[in-house]
Batch of 3 targets.
Target 1
Amino acid sequence: MTHHKKALQFAREGKWDEAHELVQPHTDKLSCLIHAWLHREEGDNANAAYWYREADSAFPDNDLDEEWERLYRMVADDS
C-alpha cells in the first residue's frame, strides 16, 4: 500500500496526525495534494493553499468529501 492511500485511510479514520506524518516528508504532486486537503480538513486554508501551489494546482471549488473522493481516485489510478 502506498503512503498516499494509507494517509487517506488514516484521515477517514480521524487519525489526522498519522496521515500528516505520512505525507509531510514527500514533495511529489499527489503527496502535496493530500497534504493540502489535510490542512483544509483542519480549517487551515492558508496552509492548504500553500500545498496546492506546491502541487501546481488551484485551490479546488469542492467540499472536503468531494476532494477526498477525487484524491482517492487519483491514488487508485497511481497504483
Target 2
Amino acid sequence: MWKAVLAGTAAAVISSSSLVFADQMCDRDGGSRWQPSAADIKAFTDARVAALKAGLELTAEQEKNWPAAEAAIRDMAKARADRMAARTNEQPPSDPVEALHQRAERLGTVATGLKKLADAEEPLYRSLDDAQKQRFEILTRVRFHRQMGSAGWQKPSEHGDD
C-alpha cells in the first residue's frame, strides 16, 4: 500500500514540478511559452509509465498484460509530441473551411490513437482487483491534466481539439 501512495505522490510531484518549471521558463523568456525538448518529453513519459506500474503493484499474471499497455501509452505520447512539433512551424490556414478539414484530420488521428490505447489497456484493467483499479484511475488522470504545454498527455479541450 505504501508503494502505491509513494507512486501517486511521485506522480503528483512530477506533474506539479513540471508546471512550475514551465511557468518559470516562460518568465525567463519574456513571456514566450516553454517548449519541451524530445529528451524532456521522453523523461516525463518514462516517469509517468514508471509511476503507473509501481502504483499498480502487478502480480505475475497481471504483468503479462503490461507490455501492450506500456507500448500503447508510449505510442500515444510520441504521436502527440509529433503532432505538436509539426504544428509548431505550421501557419494556420486563412480559409476557415480548410481549418475545419485540418482539425477533423487531427481529431481522427487522436481518435485512432485513443482506440488503440483503450484496446491495449483493457486486458490489463480487467485483470486488476478493485484497489488496483482505483489506483489505475488516479494515476492515469495525471496524463489527462494539462501539463508542460504540449508534452503531457492532455484531455481534449471542450472544443474537441487535441
Target 3
Amino acid sequence: MLSAGTKYKLFQFIQIMSENETLIEEQRQELARIEEFEPWAAFRRLCQCSDDPSRNAINAEDLCRFLR
C-alpha cells in the first residue's frame, strides 16, 4: 500500500503530465492551422541533423543540433 505522501506525489505527477499534454495539444492545433507548415518536411529536416539518418526517430541531441 502506498503512503499518503507517495499518493500525493503520484497525484501531482499525473496532474502535471495532464497539464503538459493539454499545452502540447494546443500547440499542435496551432501548428495545424498554419497552411505552410508541413509536419513531414519538419521531421525530415530534423532527421538530417542526426548522426544516423536511416533511423525513423529523433532525440534530444537531434533537436539541439537543429536549433544551433
